[in-house]
Amino acid sequence: xxxxxxxxxxxxxxxxxxxxxxxxxxxxxxxxxxxxxxxxxxxxxxxxxxxxxxxxxxxxxxxxxxxxxxxxxxxxxxxxxxxxxxxxxxxxxxxxxxxxxxxxxxxxxxxxxxxxxxxxxxxxxxxxxxxxxxxxxxxxxxxxxxxxxxxxxxxxxxxxxxxxxxxxxxxxxxxxxxxxxxxxxxxxxxxxxxxxxxxxxxxxxxxxxxxxxxxxxxxxxxxxxxxxxxxxxxxxxxxxxxxx
Length: 244
What we know:
The structure is a single chain. By secondary structure, the chain is an alpha/beta fold. The longest helix is centred in the N-terminal third of the chain and has 17 residues, at 3-19. The protein has helices spanning 3-19, 21-26, 34-42, 57-64, 78-89, 134-147, 165-168, 208-217; strands at residues 47-51, 70-75, 98-102, 121-125, 153-159, 171-172, 188-193, 199-204, 220-228, 236-243. It has one domain: Rossmann fold. Helices cover 33% and strands 24% of the residues. The radius of gyration is 17 Å and the shape is globular. The protein is built from eight helices and ten strands. A hairpin with a 5-residue loop joins β7 and β8. The strands form two sheets. A seven-stranded mixed sheet has the order 3-2-1-4-5-10-9, sandwiched between helices. Strands 6-7-8 form a three-stranded antiparallel sheet.
């Protein structure tokens, strides 16, 4: 994918999360059942790095489970980070080991925001499919791999929206956002959000085979994969990885 197209898609998604942070926060008040399935990978970690932390719901879930380690959440949406901070401040416990930091995960320099933080586990939920361009997804995963020390794990999820008849109905023609589909890669989609398709964002289709290939190219070893969430139990594909 051309650099200019990647940049334009990244800008489209930044604009979406800036414009719809409040609405998005309301739809992410609770947590999916799959959080219980990834808990065994995160609970033993003393330090958790949450990439694309949004409104901090993963941290909220971990704390309900008694986890009290060091936490760093990165996200590019100021609105969602503000919601995460509000949720955290509502707690009456010590939160000095917790930080939310604004960082653009679509930038090649995002990992600078995690400098000095040595994660035992990285959570990267619903992020990878928003990174434009296959090469950029490999780069991002390679950066995650570089942050993993011995015994550390990366837990990520990708949205399986094309498996849902309802969500397939949200796919728009690329012209609706001013893009030429010839500039896109196979599996790239434009999805609407809200009434009247007011919001538009870029999503890539990443199935189990492709996720494994991306991870392998990035220097990651696959420990486990599974699907979960949604009415049919297959709305998200999860992968658990270690570095080579």
